[in-house]
């Protein structure tokens, strides 16, 4: 049977029980951890793309994406507390729905992490060229060296995004030689990000430039832009869903949390609510000060974010200050309203903080590769550890080349949409896995149980499907095409080399 290879839950849990973590985290620490994981790329980078899709309705888009993340987070919390092992949604699916579906989830996660890292690299490139080179060094990098080619939706004259390639390969090199982040450095970067965004809100919302007139019309493209268009408030929500990815890191801390039944949902929902309100305030500040109306096409529908048509419009003098045309939206807003110095500091904050996000995403992708290789589904050579650096250098190098290539030739909005397609599929499978485990492992200890799972589980599935079908059609197509390539690899190699299929199941002896 194709679906018959289910990895025994006892084997997974026995491995997990070998490590016993001390419960030290309270709800406040969890909430701060969640805020640090979530705030980053999306709000710094995707504000312009979201405004082009929804106009002032970007504020509603943040609320929609945040609500779907909250129900998905509750599902993640139960299963992460119950199966606290590496592999995330891939491992959860393997233990409930079998090897084939687990392969599809792992394959989608590989796409998600790599493309998300590419999106962050492109976003970092915008702040690097706009703030560091232009503002501080007086260097204007030509468009052909700093933007994706026109055929793929870049700026006029774009050929290759060189800064994005450089940062992607630099992070790859750091990962290969074994450089890791310390918690202290990460905490400083979180403080920089939150301080920068707080300063943005403080300077824009009460400013003399702020006008409520700029919020009309509030939904220029409507709530639903239409199937496959990726516009409207829901289309923008499908894109800026990217701004919330990272919250699942909170759920994985469930086994280190005091009173997880109470503190995990507070940490998850608290951090997501904080980020949602924060994001809405940032969007309100940006739109209320310089406007955020999309540039409309002749048919009354906004030009697609990152498209050739939009790039041509943004090159016109009348749109030079438009929010939707900026590659470093928040710094750009502050410069337009006369706070150039603070805008430059915000650009520096993004320049400094975003590489850590690339590192985390690429590290996560190599971990998924590593777990799948350990299960025999990918060649074990991929997870070979370098004798000197003690890192999986082969898979890290492959990942880095793929990330650099995508960052070189695709604009940030398209990359975020593609990454979201893989993320939404993984989140949906986690919700299904939680509901299955409630029946197949009903008596298994759970330090956290998702409240009203009969409602939260289906809402998560429907929410993920809903956002997926509001992505642009090109992004929707990437997932099944990528999945088809994965199935060829699975039936051509993985199925016959699977450790589980060959009867190799490691179950540590009970002590």
Describe this structure in words.
The protein has 511 residues and is an all-alpha fold. The chain has one domain (32-497): Amino acid/polyamine transporter I (Up-down Bundle). It is built from 20 helices and no strands. Helix 18 (412-440) runs antiparallel to helix 19 (453-468). The two termini are 34 Å apart.
How would you sum up this structure in a few lines?
This protein has 511 residues and is mainly alpha-helical. Helix content is 64%, strand content 0%.
Task: List key phrases describing it.
single chain; 511 residues; mainly alpha; Amino acid/polyamine transporter I; globular
Distance between the termini: 34 Å
Q: State the helicity in percent bands.
A: 55-70%
Low-confidence stretches: none
Report the major sheet: none
Supply the helix-strand structural class: mainly alpha
**What is the count of helical runs?**
20
Q: What's the CATH H-level superfamily name? A: Amino acid/polyamine transporter I
Mean pLDDT: 84
CATH fold title = Amino acid/polyamine transporter I
Number of domains: 1
The CATH architecture designation is Up-down Bundle
Give the tally of β-strands. Answer: 0
Which strand-content bin applies to the residues?
under 5%
CATH class: Mainly Alpha
What is the CA-atom radius of gyration, in angstroms? 22 Å
Which sequence of SSEs, written as H and E, runs from N to C?
A: HHHHHHHHHHHHHHHHHHHH
Shape: globular
């Amino acid at each position: 049977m194709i679906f018959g290879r289910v990895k025994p839950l006892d084997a997974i849990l026995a491995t997990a029980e070998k490590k016993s973590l001390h419960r030290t985290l309270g709800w406040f620490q969890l909430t701060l951890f969640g805020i640090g994981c979530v705030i980053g790329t999306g709000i710094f980078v995707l504000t312009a793309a979201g405004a082009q899709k929804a106009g002032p309705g970007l504020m509603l888009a943040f609320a929609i994406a945040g609500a779907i993340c909250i129900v998905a987070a509750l599902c993640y919390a139960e299963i992460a507390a119950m199966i606290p092992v590496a592999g995330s949604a891939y491992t959860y699916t393997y233990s409930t729905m079998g090897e084939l579906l687990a392969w599809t989830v792992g394959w989608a996660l590989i796409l998600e992490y790599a493309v998300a890292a590419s999106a962050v690299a492109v976003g970092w490139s915008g702040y690097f060229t706009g703030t560091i080179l232009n503002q501080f060094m007086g260097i204007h990098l030509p468009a052909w060296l700093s933007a994706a080619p026109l055929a793929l939706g870049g700026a006029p004259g774009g050929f290759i995004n060189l800064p994005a390639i450089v940062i992607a390969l630099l992070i790859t090199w750091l990962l290969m030689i074994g450089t890791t982040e310390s918690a202290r450095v990460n905490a400083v970067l979180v403080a920089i990000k939150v301080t920068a965004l707080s300063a943005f809100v403080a300077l824009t919302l009460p400013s003399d430039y702020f006008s409520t007139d700029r919020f009309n019309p509030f939904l220029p493209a409507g709530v639903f832009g239409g199937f496959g268009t990726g516009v409207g408030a829901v289309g923008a929500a499908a894109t800026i869903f990217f701004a919330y990815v990272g919250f699942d890191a909170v759920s994985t801390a469930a086994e280190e949390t005091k009173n997880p039944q109470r503190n995990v949902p507070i940490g998850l929902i608290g951090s997501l609510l904080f980020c949602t309100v924060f994001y809405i305030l940032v969007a309100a500040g940006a739109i209320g000060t310089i406007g955020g109306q999309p540039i409309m096409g002749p048919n009354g529908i906004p030009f697609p974010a990152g498209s050739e048509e939009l790039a041509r419009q943004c090159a016109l003098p009348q749109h030079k200050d438009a929010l939707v045309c900026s590659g470093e939206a928040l710094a750009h807003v502050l410069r337009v309203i006369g706070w150039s110095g603070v805008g430059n500091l915000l650009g520096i904050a993004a320049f400094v903080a975003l590489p850590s996000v690339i590192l985390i995403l690429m590290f996560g992708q190599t971990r998924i590769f590593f777990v799948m290789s350990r299960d025999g589904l990918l060649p074990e050579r991929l997870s070979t550890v370098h004798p000197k650096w003690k890192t999986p250098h082969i898979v890290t190098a492959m990942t880095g080349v793929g990330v650099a290539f995508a960052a070189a030739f695709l604009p940030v909005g398209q990359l975020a949409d593609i990454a979201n397609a893989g993320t939404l599929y993984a989140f949906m499978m986690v919700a299904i896995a939680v509901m299955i485990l409630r029946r197949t492992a009903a008596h298994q200890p759970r330090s956290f149980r998702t409240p009203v799972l009969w409602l939260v589980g289906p809402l998560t599935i429907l929410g993920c499907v809903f956002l997926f079908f509001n992505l642009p059609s090109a992004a929707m197509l990437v997932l099944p095409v990528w999945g088809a390539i994965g199935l060829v690899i699975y039936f051509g190699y993985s199925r016959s080399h699977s450790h589980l299929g060959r009867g190799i199941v490691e179950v540590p002896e009970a002590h």
